[in-house]
Amino acid sequence: MEQQEMDFGVFATSAANHARRRNAPPVPDVDGLFDAEGVEVICGRRQCAVEFAGELFADVQFKETKIRATAIAPGRWDPVAVLSACTRAHGNRVYEVDYATSTPTNPGGVDELRIAAIIGADGVKPYLSKKSRYAAGELGVWAPLQRPTEIEYIRSFRRQPAGKPTWAFRTLLWGHGGPRTSDYRVRRSLRALEDVGLVRIELGPRGGMATAKVEWLPRAYLAPERLASADEEALGALAP
Prior knowledge:
8 helices, 3-stranded antiparallel beta sheet, 240 residues, single chain, alpha+beta
């Protein structure tokens, strides 16, 4: 099943949100996994065709390139594997999260590593692989190193080491709800996150992303910590 790619340029009209509601993304199950129909929709939005070989394998194809994806359980597909297959079929690079160097801060309680894995699978680099060319301040403001006179007045500005979020990922995590951006990498990341059920997007009055309302869905947040059964019993014993 191959569908027309849904990108924000296609639906940048006065009826953008209505059109996007009619072409709503697939809904994952309670574990965040997708069935075969959901896989077809996600791939179709990226102009990839899908051919299933039983309940464990799927061949994702773009033009002449075919990439095999493996299910995490019979008939259940991890969105990272699906997006990675599409990205590789297009001949683009997939960015896997380096858990040894990344230092997630989970702003607002969101699951930063899960979000990074999704956008990395879709071809957007979430973390720096080497020291940045830019200096960042405490408030996330970035300044090119070509302007050292400005950095002199902002003593907290430092070049970011490997493992820190890239500019696009920082903007994605902290930008919406504050400063907005229409940067392509951020828009692409938001589309991938919407496709897998982590965000809800309402485009602006003229169908633009610069004024869009972006809401993190419950699945994007870290699960609340649960006490061990022994601790719960102890707290119960202390209750009057």
